[in-house]
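ugh ok fine here u go
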Amino acid sequence: MSRILHRNARATPPVAVRGQGVYLYDRDGKQYLDGSGGAAVSCLGHGHPEVVEAMRRQAGSVAYAHTGFFTSEVAEELADFLIQRSPGLGKAYFVTGGSEAMEAALKIARQYFLERGEHKRKHFIARRQSYHGNTLGALAVGGNQWRRVQFEPMLIDAHHIAPCYPYRDQGDDESEFEYGQRIANELEEKIGELGAESVIAFIAEPVVGATAGALTPVPGYFKRVREICDAHGILLILDEVMCGMGRTGTLFACEQEGIEPDIAAVAKGLGGGYQPIGAMLMSDEIFSAIESGSGFFQHGHTYLGHPMSCAAALSVQKIVERDDLLENVRSAGASLKQALGEQFSEHPNVGDVRGRGLFIGLELVAERSTKTPFELSVPLHKIVKQQAMAAGLMCYPMSGTIDGQRGHHILLAPPYIIDHDHIDEIVKKLSLAIDETCREVSAA
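structure:
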């Protein structure tokens, strides 16, 4: 009997014993193609010898040094690497994951305005069907009702507007641009309702991940969002924990929108799963306000700037850049999306195939022509996962796609090193899993 509290308290998952390239292997010798990168984490695949060696070298020099006493060479080098390639950001703050990065973003945004004497600012605005982490602050600004509901009494107040979700919300009489402007203008309406002097920031994922299945913004949407934030003196916080670090084809997902955030959070693909790491990146303006004010960020964790984590992340990022893997993200991503579109073009239960780079979502429906979701009582995502694992494929199915309760999707986020054979394998095994799932549901 396992002594671990697993994600499902009624089941023990297979025991992973080895990883190599795009595959993981369990204790029984079964092979699984990592079609979701775990949770969009394993960007470089598993067992890369250069990353393993970088970690070994770091462990042999400085494995841990508390940031209350020291910085480290590898943390400084990683910060330089990221900031030099970032969209207008100036300083980095290294944590151990995405939730911590978002929690730090919320705190530094509030402190920025306190340093400026703007004490009335207390509100955060985000979007429905967003996900920003599982710490209480990050959960509060997230917009997925299923994740929030049982902890609601413990959460800070946050306000939510519509996501950019053209598959379900774009009007028949609207162009993509018109739809995007209409949805973005909800932000201005919400700011007017709350009073601009009381709003700290707007928070969004450039491409929505876990809760809505690779929702990509329509052209012009984020430029309008940036204009609104600037007009009212409000910060723009971009959550790139899942969609950043090359996942959508550029190092930062927001590069493709032609905007710069005031604060960005990254994780997952930053270290590729080799060590736990995330980062909160801030503009020079935010840093300067703190430097010239109180002089310190009133926040911290034991494992900030952990040298082992920074060494792994730096190695991962150098390999991604040296091997031009972002070009493969773009080309292989286009091929995978096309192959999925062709495979499921007439499938009665696949309503939409969407995404960018190697970050692709499939929305599952009970009726394709009407976009009708499956009944709430149907645990479709659980069955899909079981069938995919049986077929030797890891994918990321979720429920609550539409509003936190209704709807289902599958997220794919394979390593950046996949080739055409892997694409064929993903499509074949996913098709088998979906068909088997639909048969099982129909027979129930």
